[in-house]
Write a structure and sequence with these properties.
single chain, alpha+beta, 4-stranded mixed sheet, 9 helices
């Protein structure tokens, strides 16, 4: 399988973490792509030009980070990151959805602050930041480090992206209870190996 990613992308990072946590790196070739420069190799896989994009061994492309993470989890051996039991499954997926929303809103803020065609909209940014803060408040407390779930991965990736791109938001002051958990989970090998970075290529 081929996994296209960009080092700054939190959506790509969570897929890379899942691949490592599920011991699939012997089956996954990671390929760096720049989604902001219409990388032709990426566009050949994903017409939207977004990362991550996963090409299966039979050539089938998977284009969405949620789909990619669920596929990687499903094909690996051993305990899954997404429980099969109905009630627990939806709890984990909802936890993961909150992380995805934080990443979505944070990325929107980053893009808006980098506008060159007009001045960034303070109103737009304030609305997105308020959404981030509400989603942060809704994140469950997850002190159990013994069992890792996709919800944990998404939440931790979102918090790391806030540190990376929006440090002034200071999520730790809003959710100090999550800080020790986040510091600990970032010490896992899969997280250390996928730290966000601005360098592409």
């Amino acid at each position: 399988m081929k996994l296209f990613y960009a080092p700054p992308s939190p959506f790509a990072r969570k897929a890379r973490i899942v691949a490592r946590e599920r011991n699939l790196m012997d089956r996954v070739e990671e390929i760096v792509a720049n989604p902001f420069q219409d990388d032709p190799n990426l566009l050949a896989v994903n017409p939207a030009g977004l990362v991550p994009a996963l090409v299966l061994d039979d050539g089938t492309p998977l284009l969405d980070s949620r789909l990619i993470c669920q596929h990687l989890d499903a094909i690996a051996d051993g305990p899954t990151l997404i429980p099969n039991q109905s009630g627990e499954r939806w709890r984990v997926l909802n936890h993961g959805a909150l992380g995805d929303l934080i990443m979505d809103f944070a990325l929107s803020v980053v893009v808006e602050t980098r506008r060159t065609d007009a001045s960034p909209s303070a109103t737009f940014i304030a609305r997105k930041v308020a959404k981030i803060e509400r989603c942060l408040a809704a994140l469950p407390v997850t002190p159990d480090m013994a069992t890792l779930t996709l919800g944990d991965i998404n939440a931790a990736t979102a918090l790391a992206y806030l540190d990376f791109r929006l440090p002034d938001l200071d999520w730790r002051s809003l959710r100090p209870d999550l800080a020790p958990w986040h510091d600990a989970i970032e010490q896992r090998p899969a997280f250390i190996a996928t730290q966000p970075a601005d360098h592409i290529g």
